[in-house]
Amino acid sequence: MKRKRITAKKLKIGIAAAFMIFSFSSVSAQQQVSLQEAIKQALQNKAEAKKAALQVKKAEYKIDEAKAGALPQISVAGGVSYNPIIQETVVEIMGQRNIFKMGQPWNSSISATLNQALFDQRVFIGLKAAKSTREFYVLNSQLTNEQIIVNVATAYYNVFVQEENLKTLETSYKNTEKVRNIIKSLVDNGLAKPIDLDRTNVQLTNIASNKQKLINGVELAKNSLKFYMGVPIDSPIELEEKSIEPRPELIAGQINLDNRSEIKVLRKQMELLQFNKKATEAFLYPTVSLQANYGWYGMGTKFPWFNGINNGVNWSDAASIGLNVNIPIFTGGATKSKIQQAEIDIQDLNQDIENTQLSLNLDYKNAATNMENALINIQSMKDNVALAEKVQANTQSNYQYGLATLTDLLDTDNSLTEAKQNYANALLDYKQAEIQLMKARGELNTLQNP
């Protein structure tokens, strides 16, 4: 009987040792993806980023279009016509009526016209507006990229935390499986009760069920990340192994709203509206342009092209140079109404800027508060993990000497697993708060090049 007690005691020590072994799942040989690489791929692949880049390129062509208005406009026109019936006119000369034909059966003309704007406010304002339009699309592209960065970073850390939770459950499953095997051996040798084996099997089944849920959760989270990265969903990815380090220093300091892309976009939009108002006012100013024309005309009884005077076709040229001045006098008040409408658009945008500033200030305050709470929660969950580990170690020690039951031992393992998962979730809450705070401070680009 004494021998059986000694053997059972040794087996209990073996069970406790099994719980102290932590092993993680092997990492696949797939290429690991860092957050910076994920963001880089997203900015290259996502449709939103590509469309924003196309708008910038389109703005370049708008600048070329505006420049064209200040350059000479040259056109060439030509044509040939045949008159089967030529109009006749009657001219009285010295009391005698004479009938003359007005023209020739064949007529041809080739002319070149040049127009050069010398003074046109609309052209010069349009050129300035085109340059501002390009700057607007560049800023809008930056705003689009920032949203992509937020989506990618949030999805990235969601996968990261889900994988950490999965590792915790895998460790718990392996430890519980080892204990189950030891208890089964004890039951087979009549040294343990079958109910202890049943309890361990129930524990193992529950862990396996939660593990499968997390495996699915990791896969879904990875699919979301791949979508935000703009890569095929079937592409295998593995995250770079890197720990999350809280940065409480981000809370310190003040923000400058002028650094926010949202404000920059609105101010550039204000600049465009002011140009629109000036362009409308330009309709009140006179315009001056130079026009030059040169033409070559042929008339005769035969098809003019490739024929000259010897074949009955006469060719002659003509040229003219003129100055056109257009002075608006009265437009019925239409221009004034358009100017007033443009001014209202400016005032309306001013309201949007003020409201956006208030909203961004609110976002910053909320992000800072959320991050402070997240930091407190991280420390609390970290202390809780340390306490759960201590409780588990004490319970294992007590179990070795018969001072704790198997139920107590399994409960402490559950508590430690839950504490580690809560800590991982607290890290996720922190990273989400950190991303929002960096966005509120206009510092998201540092995620690309930390």
From TrEMBL:
Ordered alphabetically, the record's keywords are: Cell outer membrane, Coiled coil, Membrane, Signal, Transmembrane, Transmembrane beta strand, Transport
Drop me one GO molecular function for this one: porin activity
Q: Which residues form a coiled coil?
A: 32-64, 339-391, 416-443
Q: Where is the signal peptide?
A: 1-29
Question: Where does the protein end up?
Answer: Cell outer membrane
Q: What is its main location?
A: membrane
Instruction: Report the superkingdom from the record.
Output: Bacteria
Give the record's GO CC terms. cell outer membrane; efflux pump complex
Q: According to its UniProt record, which protein family does this protein belong to?
A: Belongs to the outer membrane factor (OMF) (TC 1.B.17) family.
Q: What is this protein called?
A: TolC family protein
What is the organism of origin for this protein?
Chryseobacterium gallinarum
Lineage, uppermost ranks: Bacteria, Pseudomonadati, Bacteroidota, Flavobacteriia, Flavobacteriales
